[in-house]
Specification:
The structure holds two protein chains of two kinds. Chain A is α/β, with parallel strands linked by helices. Chain A is about 40% helix and about 20% strand. Chain B is about 30% helix and about 20% strand. In chain B, the strands form five sheets. A five-stranded antiparallel sheet of chain B has the order 1-2-5-4-12. A five-stranded antiparallel sheet of chain B has the order 3-15-16-11-10. Chain B has a five-stranded mixed sheet with strand order 17-18-19-20-21. Classes of the chains: A alpha/beta, B alpha+beta.
């Protein structure tokens, strides 16, 4: 067989048909498995992968022009370069650095940069996040990238073309190959830029003709990955720990990005990530002090000897109160008041006590003398905390993202912390590691790509919907997406605002309705918006939309369900029973799914 | 040039249906605190600039939040004349919807900063309820018309104020968009019938600024205006006006085709010809101004491209007025006369220093509260000056002590906080709200004045009145190019230093240093102050001195400036 043309489909028509038949109807996860299976087969046949076959489709065979400038100059140069390249038959695209996801650089093969410098050597606004990424350790190695930089600047400034120079030097440092030297342009950039563009296009044939083997990293990943689960969690590097509530917010919500590189972990939109957290050290200290412990005492947890401090810090539950602990504490101290509360009929009083108090509050309010081991034996094991995953694995290869509201509040005259939320927010910095594993959630899954969906996710309940929308955007799913989001203040609490705006602009989101409860005298919540747009909402449901709810189970989930019943009744022409039956039917058909906690 | 396409802003204006655009839809969009990009151009004509808090811009981007958008609202106040009840209304708006401050501008207007989108409409409505408006306070139209605020000759100044108000009214856009959008006015079903008699559908190619002035004070900086009227007073009566055209401050760093320019005297007209001449200047600029390049669109370039004589013929033809030979006039200063002044009719006026025009409560200097007390307690008028100061005007003899008491009570009397250098200083807003700022301005100039004051004091020059003006970019809102010391921001902490502007605003300065930081600025100025202390002639101003001493060349036309 003659060598296939570069980039041509390596299967004949019949093979192609059979392949399509074989994979029809498979879920994304299954498709991924099949891809790994096929790659494994290829590996066992022991033949080197043919460059022409392994080279990915056009994405790898085109020129990407990334631009960033304070004015339109950079874009202008980029557009002209793309036009020239296309006019000579090459695939090329221009993307603003503001729109380009920095980590996607690893997947690029051939990139030119057009970037200006402003102020005292600073990158333009559009490029500052990319610049920060590139300069950081997160940029990784870029050995399969070839590049050239055109720097725009104003030579009356001291740090002329600084950003372009930094890009150029840093890319080389990361192993990328410079195929055309850096060009520095002053305010009169036209002729230099045109000459540079000409040289770039002249080289395209040579560059694209010998495109390197692509997708090698993808193939690596499927080679007998270690299995990480509850018993052997994966140590994931924290790539990003970013507060995403604004300066005036009453909340501290973090966007956490973790690296799954090399983990073999697979997840789907809708899944959760379990995090094995450690208790706040201040709380451990306070507990030791209150109980007159030293911390160095040896105790045994599951027959494993360790220091008391270690046990309290990372093995045992010392925040959330359990009834078991409360009973043990009451028995231990012969405390009648506590016993009578626990043995009484007032279940609400017990619930209230347990939900408002942490372990430390009990031992402070009801002091008793206790031996370290006896105390340890009263406590539960520290459980992993689960977070709905906020990322699509296909849009963010080798990464998993979480949306975490840091729980910190004052009660009984002392600060209280949520274990995992403050662990992620305060106690693991970027570059450090967190132990995680994936928890599958098959009851919270995207429907077929053409089915419209309605997502209701106030607060951090929006997390899985970020994954849903990313996933559908990545696959070009034709089904319409409608998101209801709510929080306290528009200015500070509009989680992922810029991403939603971009999804709307790009058509990945058909509709977004937002309720900010504290921006006006009358509080407005997502359920109010659902009623306000009830007619439209019913039309979506009636035409087959699937409904998803994520977030607080205590109040929100019930309020939203009531609103849904109202909408079904009012606009669908049902009485209350009929509406409930209809919702039940939706649930049975997996068209009403909830992830509430 | 004739073949070049018109600018995007021109296309936006043309498609705007007389400034309506999609402003109503933009106001109702709950997903963003911004208005649409095209609407940001149109909102200016309504006196509204979209801005964002640049101090938190990068932080918010990391937070995946859009910029902290808010709006600057500029109220139009011809001649800067306000009643006390109007001031109280502005004060209430500042506290309710803006950032607890009122910014007095270099054009006798006021600005509110930090108004968020959902409060925008109510704020505009409240301004209108106080019998003020914001229409044409910005945009490619005639902006706030200036007039001398200190009525030294009460009759003359009252008349000039009336001309300013008449001109302002005459050049106000006729579009009903403003009432429809902000004041719930009835919507026109079709705007096809709506005519803009002076501007036409695309308004002017660029902003347009007009002012009246009464010599010998040049407080309005008449030569910085597109259109100026210099009152010629003979025997206590206004004989008419010398007309000036083609002044303008803005330039662009690094673009040598742009330059600040002083207005030229076109000729003399009689009082009753003012409106006709003004309209002719405006329509000539409307028809001949460059709509293909906004950096070459001001009247100053139209005149330099067509020649002054040609432009005069055009104005005469359009107005039917034949302009006479200009009359003699003399200007002595462009600053304000501080403290108590008495006019020829016996009324008193107190010119109060407002540093950089910022009216707010800062520590013991409670300017916002003090002016509120003043407007509530005393009978007076308030007048905003072109130097961003405020005059407590038309005070009767017996009220002076009480007013002095109020000023002292709130720590806002001039003596409390100002040297002559500071009194003659002025800065634009700059960071954090102005979208154009490249360097600090209002937040930094007071500190630089401290440094300069210390050096002047060492040389025994503590009383020197030197006009010092700073802007955060090259557009020149604080008119830095005609200051004796002008500082034009280029990058954080770096400025172009202009020296040798005229004390009466009659000469443009020369760009002596580019990209200078504070040390370089002080190192350049300190030895010049020393020479000035030793070598100046009697009454010689610093700007005149540096030109005479050959430190900087004399600039006779702005286009001679070729530095960037």
């Amino acid at each position: 067989m003659s060598q296939p043309a570069v980039g041509a489909m390596p299967l004949d028509t019949d093979q192609s048909k059979r392949l399509q038949h074989a994979v029809a109807g498979l879920s994304p996860a299954q498709l991924q498995w099949v891809s790994g299976y096929a790659a494994g087969l290829a590996a066992t046949q022991g033949e080197p992968l043919h460059a022409g076959i392994a080279a990915a489709p056009t994405a790898d065979r085109q020129l990407t022009v990334l631009f960033g400038s304070q004015t339109g100059n950079g874009e202008g140069v980029a557009e002209r370069l793309v036009a020239t390249a296309r006019s000579r038959g090459f695939a090329a695209r221009a993307i603003s650095l503001a729109e380009f996801k920095p980590s996607a650089l690893r997947r690029e093969k051939l990139v030119t940069f057009v970037v200006s410098t402003h102020g005292d050597g600073d990158p333009p606004d559009d490029a500052d996040l990319f610049h920060e990424y590139l300069m950081s350790a997160r940029a990784g190695t870029l050995e399969s990238l070839r590049y050239s930089v055109l720097a725009l600047g104003d030579s009356s400034y001291v740090n002329f073309c600084q950003t372009g120079r930094e890009f150029d030097a840093r890319l080389a440092e990361l192993g990328a190959e410079r195929f055309e030297p850096l060009v520095e342009c002053d305010l009169d950039f036209d002729s230099l830029a045109a000459a540079w563009s000409g040289r770039v296009v002249d080289q395209l044939e040579a560059l694209i003709g010998e495109a390197p083997v692509a997708a090698a990293t993808h193939l690596h990943a499927v080679q007998s990955p270690p299995v990480h689960g509850r018993d052997s969690p994966f140590r994931a590097e924290v790539l990003t720990n970013q507060k995403i509530t604004g300066g005036g917010s009453s909340k501290d919500v973090r966007h956490i990005e973790l690296s799954l590189e090399g983990s073999g972990l697979r997840y789907e939109p809708g899944d959760a990530l379990a995090v094995i957290a450690e208790n706040p050290p201040q709380l451990v200290d306070e507990l030791l002090q209150t109980l007159s412990f030293d911390g160095a005492e040896t105790v045994s947890v599951d027959d494993e000897p360790m220091q008391l401090r270690t046990a309290l810090a990372s093995k045992l539950e010392i925040t959330v109160l359990s009834l078991g602990f409360l009973r043990a504490w009451a028995d231990h101290g012969n405390n009648d008041r506590l016993r009578s509360l626990l043995s009484g009929d007032d279940r609400q009083a017990i619930t209230d006590f347990v939900t408002t108090h942490q372990v430390i509050d009990v031992v402070r309010r009801i002091p008793e003398h206790v031996e370290p081991q006896a105390f340890i034996d009263m406590l539960r094991k520290l459980a992993p905390r689960s977070y709905s995953i906020a990322s699509s694995p296909n849009a963010n290869p080798d990464e998993v993202h979480l949306t975490v509201a840091a729980v910190r509040y004052e009660a009984f005259g002392r600060p209280h912390w949520g274990v995992a939320s403050t662990y992620l927010a305060d106690r693991v910095a970027e570059g450090e590691h967190v132990q995680v594993f994936v928890e599958k959630n098959p009851r919270f899954r995207l429907p077929a790509p053409d089915v419209p969906i309605v997502m209701i996710g106030p607060g951090t309940g929006v997390a899985p919907f970020r994954a849903f929308v990313e996933e559908r955007a990545e696959h070009g799913a034709p089904g319409d997406n409608w998101l209801f989001f709510g929080d306290r203040n528009f200015s500070f609490d509009f989680l992922y605002q810029l991403e939603w705006q971009r999804h709307l602009k790009q058509g990945n989101l058909r509709r977004l309705d937002v309720a900010f409860s504290r921006d006006q005298r009358e509080k407005v919540y997502v359920q109010d918006l659902m009623r306000r747009h009830g007619g439209e909402l019913w039309r979506w449901i009636d035409s087959g939309a699937a409904i998803y709810v994520c977030g607080d189970a205590t109040n929100m989930a019930g309020d939203v369900e009531n609103a849904l019943l109202d909408v079904i009744a009012k606009h669908g022409g049902f009485d209350r029973d009929g509406a409930e039956a209809h919702l039940k039917e939706l649930r049975r058909a997996k068209r009403y799914q909830r992830d509430v906690y | 040039m004739g073949d070049s396409p018109v600018t995007d802003v021109e296309r936006i204006k043309a498609a705007s249906r007389n400034l309506r655009g999609t402003l109503l839809e933009s106001l109702e969009d709950p997903l963003t605190g911004a208005i649409s990009e095209t609407d940001t151009q149109l909102s200016k004509f309504h006196g509204i600039y979209q801005q964002d808090d640049r101090d938190v811009r990068n932080e918010r981007k990391r937070q995946k939040l859009e910029p902290a958008y808010s709006f600057m609202i500029r109220a139009r106040i011809p001649g800067g004349l306000l009643t006390t009840s109007q001031w109280l209304a502005l004060d209430r708006i500042a506290r309710e919807y803006a950032n607890d401050s009122i910014r007095l501008t270099t054009r006798q207007a006021v600005q509110f900063h930090g108004v968020i989108k959902r409060n925008l409409k109510q704020t505009i409505a409240d301004i209108n309820r106080a019998a003020l408006d914001t229409l044409a306070a910005c945009g490619d139209v005639n902006r706030n018309v200036m007039s001398p605020p200190l009525p030294a000759w009460s009759q003359v100044h009252r008349q000039v104020q009336r001309y300013a108000e008449d001109l302002s009214a005459h050049l106000t856009p006729a579009s009903g968009a403003y009432h429809e959008i902000w004041l719930d006015g009835e919507k026109l079903l079709s705007t096809e019938e709506e005519i803009e008699p002076i501007y036409g559908a695309t308004y002017l190619p660029r902003k347009f600024k007009a002012a009246f002035v009464v010599p010998p004070q040049n407080d309005v900086d008449v030569f910085a205006q597109d259109l100026g009227f210099i009152a010629i007073v003979e025997d206590g009566e206004i004989a008419g006006f010398n007309v000036t055209v083609g002044g303008g401050m803005g330039m662009t760093h690094g673009d040598t085709a742009t330059y600040p320019r002083l207005g030229d005297v076109l000729g003399f007209c009689r009082s009753e010809e003012v409106l006709a001449v003004a309209e002719a200047v405006v329509t000539a600029q409307r028809d001949f101004g460059d709509r293909t390049n906004r950096k070459h669109a001001r009247l100053k370039y139209t005149i330099d491209d067509r020649g002054l004589d040609g432009f005069r013929e055009e104005v005469e033809r359009r107005s039917g007025v034949s302009l006479d030979t200009p009359r003699r006039f003399v200007f002595v200063a462009n600053g304000d006369a501080y403290g108590w002044q008495r006019d020829d009719a016996g009324a008193w006026h107190y010119t109060m220093f407002v540093q950089n025009g910022r009216v707010s409560d800062v520590g013991d200097r409670r300017l916002l509260s003090g002016l509120r007390a003043l407007a509530s307690r005393h009978t007076c008028e308030l007048r905003l000056t072109p130097n961003q100061n405020l005059i407590v005007s038309r005070v009767v003899d017996g009220d002076r002590d009480a007013i002095d008491g109020t000023l002292r009570e709130f720590g806002i009397e001039n003596e409390a906080h100002a040297t002559n250098l500071r009194l003659n200083s002025m800065a634009c807003v700059g960071f954090p709200t102005c979208g154009l700022a490249m360097a600090e301005s209002e937040r930094y100039l007071p500190d630089l004045i401290d440094e300069l004051d210390a050096r002047l004091a060492e040389l025994g020059l503590e009383d020197a009145a030197i006009t010092t003006r700073m802007t955060g970019c090259a557009n020149g809102c604080a008119r830095p190019y005609i200051a004796e010391i002008g500082l034009v921001g280029k990058a954080p902490g770096r400025y172009t230093l202009f020296l040798g502007g005229g004390f009466a605003g009659e000469r443009i300065g020369y760009p002596l240093l580019d990209n200078a930081d504070e040390t370089e600025i002080l190192d350049a100025l300190t030895p010049l102050f020393a020479r000035y202390a030793n070598e100046r002639t009697e009454g010689e101003h610093f700007g005149d001195f540096v030109v005479r001493a050959g430190v900087v060349p004399e600039i006779s036309h702005g286009s001679e400036i070729r530095a960037g």
